[in-house]
Amino acid sequence: MNKILIVEDEEAIADLEKDYLELSDFEVTIENKGDIGLQTALANEFDLIILDLMLPGMDGFEVCKHIREKKNVPILMVSAKKDDIDKIRGLGLGADDYITKPFSPSELVARVKAHLASYSRLVGAGHESNDVVEIRGLKIDKTARRVYVNDAEKSFTTKEFDLLTFLAENPNHVFTKEELFRKIWNMDSIGDIATVTVHIKKIREKIELDTANPQYIETIWGVGYRFKV
Ligand code: CA
Questions:
Q1: Which whole-number Å values give the CA distances from 216 to 67, 96, 149, 166, 228, in the listed order?
Q2: For residue 123, how far is the Cα from the chain centroid?
C-alpha cells in the first residue's frame, strides 16, 4: 500500500484529502505543523508528500528544502496563491509538482497517482530487483527500506531500520551495545548506549510475537545482542 504524508494546517482540507486518498487505497498520515511534518517525513518512508506552503512551525519552502537534502520522495506542493507557485519554481527547491487551492479532491488523487506511476518507473529503471533479507517470516527490503512481518508492513524509524538490518545481516554474531552504538550512530566517542537498548525494545515490539521470548534478537546477558537464525 502506498503511504502518503499530508502536511497541512487546515484540518478540514487535510481530512478531505485523506478521505479521498484512502478511498483510492492509500495509507495517509497527517501532520498539522511544518516542523513536526519535517520530522515525520525524515523518520519514516513515504511514497509521496503533499506539502502545504503556509504552515505554523516551519513554512513549506523550508520543509521542502530540508526533505530534499535527505530524501528523493516526490513532493507535491500546495498553495492558495499562484504567485507562491511561481516563487517555488524560481527557488528550485526540488518540489515535483504544484497545485493551487482550491482544487478538487479527485484532481489531487489523479496528480498523486500520476506521480507515483512516473516515480516507480524512474526508480524501477535503475534496479533489477530489490535487495531483500528474509528470515522466518521477517522480510527486510533494503532497497525500499521497509520491513514486513508475515507480509504485514511495520513502520520503522531510520535508526531502528539500520540497527535491525545490521543485526540480521550479521546473524549469530554477538555485538556489544557499544559496538552497535558506534556502528549505527557513527560515533567514535562514548555515547549513550542506553539508546541501543531503547531501539532494540522498539524493534522487538514490531517484529516479535512475544517480546518476553524473542525469536529474532536474543539478549546475551552482560554482553549484548545476537540475531538468531
Ligand atoms: Ca496553510
A1: 33, 40, 12, 13, 5
A2: 16
Q: How many whole angstroms from 37 Cα to the centroid of ligand 1?
A: 13
Run of H or E including 10? none
Q: How far is the CA of 7 from the centre of ligand 1 (A)?
A: 9
Taking a 5 Å cut-off on Cβ, the residues next to ion ligand 1 are: 9, 52, 54
Structural contact between residues 89 and 59, judged by C-beta atoms closer than 8 angstroms:
no
Which of 117-121, 157-161, 199-203 shows the lowest per-residue confidence on average (mean pLDDT)? 117-121
Q: Is residue 222 left, alpha or beta, with left meaning phi > 0 and alpha meaning psi from -120 to 50?
A: left
Confirm whether pTM is higher than 0.85.
no
Top mean-pLDDT range of 81-95, 101-115, 173-187, 206-220: 206-220
Whole-angstrom CA distances from 179 to 89, 95, 221 are 45, 39, 15
Q: What is the largest CA-CA distance in the chain?
A: 62
Would you state the pLDDT for residue 127? 47
